[in-house]
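User: Run a structure prediction on this.
Assistant: Running it now.
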Amino acid sequence: MPERLALRCAPAALARAEPLTGTASRVQRWVIVEQPGAWGSDALRQSGLDTGVAERLAAEARRHGVRVLLGRRPGQRRLGADRTVHLVHAAREARWIEQIELPADEPAALLDLDLGALALPEPPGVGRPGPPLHLVCTNGRHDPCCADFGRPVVRALAAAGAPDVWEVSHVGGDRFAANLVCLPEGVYYGRVTPERAPGLVADLRAGFIDLAHYRGRSFLPPVVQAADAFAREHLGERRVDGLALLSTERLDEGVVAVLVQQRDGDALRVVVRAERAPAVQLTCLVHEERRPWAYRLVELGPPR
């Protein structure tokens, strides 16, 4: 019988009311590789993917600053004749997705992908334009909460007919499960429930962010994510591109002033302090306690 976990990180984080604000992983370049089947804690290296290919792909991704995720469609158990790969550029200035089909029986074809092209503001034209993606972390070997809370969300999205839903490996922030990442917008949602998931996806495809589940935009530094969230709450601004970042200024150790401009509105100065929260166990399987960053609103008003 498996050992009973002493802590479940997602319920624990909810019980202590840990804020979602400013917790999106910082990623601008993504590769999502279709690879159904079991995933280990280190999914890329611990899956059905050839280990030599996985090691070389991981090294190339590190060199180019790319996050590689494994993905599978809801209920998918095995590959077909082709393997779908999505290349995603999710930056503040430009966003795109290209979809490529590679022979499933030739995993080494993954090594022919030019990951350097993911830095470009324009798609490289190596595949066809890909659809917006809705990624739900269900990597239970990395953290049980991701599977326990993520899989019901996947089922709810599939039952609702939500488009282009993928189960994926670790996206960051296990304690905020279920986590939903929407690309190419780079929107991270946390504590997503099966009841709310279809509405979140429908709203985002209509161009609106759900602020109650909003963790941040993956292309922004965490403190700027926090400023964006505080400004949105103050203004009631839900439009995906309703705020433009104008500037950031460091005022003191851990204190940053962020100037944003509301579309068709006024500029707003948001001062945020980053500070360490008390030490807690952040994931189910790593017992070491750590102090996560927390972001406090210091000042919010018109530019000086």
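The chain is about 20% helix and 30% strand.
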